[in-house]
Amino acid sequence: MHGPTILRLSLVLGFLWLANTAWGTDFQGAGHALSYEGPPINYQAGSPVDPVAKLQERLRKGEFEFCFDAELGYLPALLGALNVPPSSQMLVFSKTSLQRRYISPENPRAIFFNDDVYVGFIPGAPAIEISTAHPKLGAVFYRLENKQFERPEFTREMDCLSCHGSQRTLGVPGHFVRSIGTDEAGELDSHTEIKDIDHCTPFSDRWAGWYVTGKHGEMTHRGNLVGAAAFERAGDEPNYLGNLEDLGKFFDTKKHLRASSDVVALLVLEHQTKMHNYITRLSFETQIMMGMYGHIRYLRSQVDAFLRFLLFAEEAPLSAAVTGNEEYARWFTNQGPFDGKGRSLREFDLKTRLFRYPCSYLIYSEQFDAIPEIMREHLLKRLYSILSNTDEDSTFAALSAEDRAAILEILRETKPNLPEYWKK
């Protein structure tokens, strides 16, 4: 055999071995990173066209000017320019950032987000951290020095991939949420971590290392607990730091845009970050499979896992009503789109589950539409069969006939470019 032939055979056998061992029936939590630096992904060499790159181009052309706030720097102007709502503010005090030395329970890191942009701000830190969910590349990371310049410049960051391109992100450039306890200074206690935080995680396991505001009844979570003594007390007095409306008892809230860290925004974030990772992973794997075999038949378990997550098939139920920042809930819901009956995939339930209609709103995203056509068409065909009750997969048995019919009707009216068979 010639060298290239042997190499190709090794790659094929290696890929099949991973498919049969590391993934099993699912690729959630895949233990290996896909190769995305070279073809067909070309992650680092690619020139992202995303909201940050577009904003940078406007700055260079003098079409947009950043206002610099004396207290918050470029943060307010940046959120406005990127259409990221200030009401989405969440606060994390665990030292989980490249600027970790500036983070503490007395100086938490604020995170803001919309459907495809994330912004991180730490009072007193030299830079604002920004990332996007790119349709082709997955997560792309940027840094903006938070001191006044005549013409600010965004710098693309690659160091973030040491964490944001690992098992936690399904082995692709992505985002993730952690639930890990800390000491009184915000240093991580690895023995307390609960991994793979998303909408499948029980409410009681979420948000260690985070501040949390909002009402959640008798349900408990791990937020607002700083240090081992706080966790110990929570064992004896559940919710003694739950159901909070204000975080003034912990730190000077005037350093931030809000005095809150919204529980509903946190619930949305946990779904959204993992859903973005699923889309990226499936897109990358499709491209790799097509290059190797010319088909996607070996991705059956990955497709099943994707659809289970898209349709919240394994969502952890809520046992009490959840209420958060009305401003954020209103902003999120108003994004639509709405069908003729006023229904939307963004409508919250927050009594027994996150959304009224259990199908991810990211099905409308540019990232979903950028999935290679052969896979996107396959996903839509499987999705249609599930929603029209012709798919007999027991995994989706909990999805009621009423929910299936509603989701199908909503998508028919609101999702552009669906195949013709969807409209029958």
Compact summary:
The protein is of the alpha+beta class and 424 residues long. The protein has helices spanning 3-21, 51-60, 75-81, 161-164, 228-236, 263-292, 300-310, 326-334, 366-369, 373-387, 401-414, and strands spanning 90-92, 109-113, 117-121, 127-134, 138-145, 154-157, 210-211.
Q: What would the keywords be for this entry?
A:
7 strands, 7-stranded antiparallel β-sheet, 424 residues, 11 helices, single chain, alpha+beta
Average per-residue pLDDT, rounded, comes to: 90
Can you count the beta strands?
Answer: 7
The strand line-up of the biggest sheet is 6-5-4-3-2-1-7
The tally of helices reads 11
Whole-Å distance between the termini?
A: 53 Å
Descriptive overview:
By secondary structure, this protein is of the alpha+beta class. It contains 11 helices and 7 strands. It has helices at residues 3-21, 51-60, 75-81, 161-164, 228-236, 263-292, 300-310, 326-334, 366-369, 373-387, 401-414; strands spanning 90-92, 109-113, 117-121, 127-134, 138-145, 154-157, 210-211. A 7-stranded antiparallel β-sheet has the order 6-5-4-3-2-1-7, with helices on both faces. The longest helix has 30 residues, at 263-292. It is globular and about 55 Å long.
Topology of helices and strands:
Elements: H1 3-21, H2 51-60, H3 75-81, E1 90-92, E2 109-113, E3 117-121, E4 127-134, E5 138-145, E6 154-157, H4 161-164, E7 210-211, H5 228-236, H6 263-292, H7 300-310, H8 326-334, H9 366-369, H10 373-387, H11 401-414
Antiparallel strand pairs: 1-2, 1-7, 2-3, 3-4, 4-5, 5-6
Helix pairs in contact: 6-7
